[in-house]
Amino acid sequence: AFPLLPPYRIKVVEPIPFLTAGQRREAYAAAGYNPFNLRADQITVDLLSDSGTGATSSAQEAAAARGDESYAGARSWFPFRDEVRDLTGYPHVLPVHQGRAAERIVFSTILRPGQICLSNTHFDTTHANVELAGAEARDLPTPRALDLDSDDPFKGDVDLDALERTLAGPDGERVGLVLMTITNNGLGAQPVSMANLTAASELCRRYRVPFWLDAARFAENAWLVREREPGYADLSPREIATRAFQLADGCVISLKKDGLAPVGGVIGVRDPDIFATCEANLIATEGFSTYGGLAGHDLERLAVGLREVVDEDYLRSRAASTARLARLINEAGVDTVQPAGIHALYLNAGRLLPHLDPGRFPGHALASQLYLTGGIRCAELGSLYLGELNDDHQLVRPAPFELVRLAIPRRVYTEAHLEYVARTLGEIAKQPDQVPGYRITAAPRVLRHFKVRLEPA
Ligand code: F0G
């Protein structure tokens, strides 16, 4: 067995640009030192997101050619619906154009103003959609996640003691939803164990609170359960994923990740009344319930992608590839959140750049240096994104950690591209004190990191 061997070869390729250091300096200054403002044709290796950035297969494109674009009851709807039903076990399925549309529709149906949504960790759009529904998004990650260096296998878990304390305590009456994010994208791509999901599900049943999954990376979570949790080695990743869905009342899924397609999302739900309310909202805001804002060809790609993503050889090679990149990066002198997950690695920028205090945004400094040195795009998960600023854009409360996420698109980059990333980090790690900090020149009030402008300081 050679775990790194992917079960596919490359058939269609897309050129990537190589800029000179001078061109990158100019491009980055024009972008206001914000990677979200760069143009794709200024980037050599793009690790900004694993969302919608994967490669499709010849089987997906063949299916897409058969896409039926009828307004209602399109032929393409049925294989998609059946695949989601079979995978999740939920009788009711609604397509949406991406994950956050599912969040908006479900949260505005389930949550009332003043209620609380509890989670292992809300993703940023998820957090925003809970608040748009008038509710409070509260994260209860396991305290084991706070040790970035430990090799605890399930740092994505929810803190069960805190969950029970909240449900039983004075705020218990106000909890309208418990949402488990698998894998935990906000906290190091760490998986959630089946034991943790089972216990959280039982607590929710006991306290009569709806229990849902944000399952954007359901296949990758299933793979890590199989590898790390006793009792699951003999089940297929798909069987493990189905068992996870069975523990919940419903799911929202961004299919831009483990759907292996550029666009798409889905809502799955057991309760017919919740389904009916969501369906009415979907028709008013996304599209008719047999396409939900997607084209027929998108639904076809997704139905095939949902099968391909649970392929053992695919998951094994993807996990091995990320683990190898983590090893190369660590050997080059840069620490990552341990143990390596699958869809992304999180660099410990705070530790690499101790000469930069949080107010000079060490995470952003490292992400910026990766672009300036090597044309590699990624973004920080630190004080620029999560810290609290005053009206003069000065940091008043830093984030708990200064991290940089290297998100790894599915089936896109070869081992040579990833080795290049590790080598570029190695170059930076030779003289970390040469990496400059940054200062904010302009920042929007909400979702700051997307549109903020900065300068070296
Ligand atoms: N939930 C999780 C856990 C996510 O990671 C994302 C998106 C969403 C929901 C929203 O889905 O983008 O389809 O609307 N994550 C991307 C990322 C953007 O880069 O991590 P969406």
From TrEMBL:
Q: Which residues carry this modification: N6-(pyridoxal phosphate)lysine?
A: K257
DNA repair listed as a keyword: no
Q: Which cofactor(s) does the record list? A: pyridoxal 5'-phosphate
Domain of life, per the record?
Answer: Bacteria
Biological process terms from the Gene Ontology for this record are:
aromatic amino acid metabolic process
- Lyase: present as a keyword of the record? yes
Instruction: State one molecular function term (GO).
Output: carbon-carbon lyase activity
Q: Which UniProt keywords apply?
A: Lyase, Pyridoxal phosphate
Spell out the Gene3D superfamilies in the cross-references: Aspartate Aminotransferase, domain 1, Type I PLP-dependent aspartate aminotransferase-like (Major domain)
* Family assignment from sequence similarity: Belongs to the beta-eliminating lyase family.
User: Would you tell me the protein name for this molecule?
Assistant: Tryptophanase
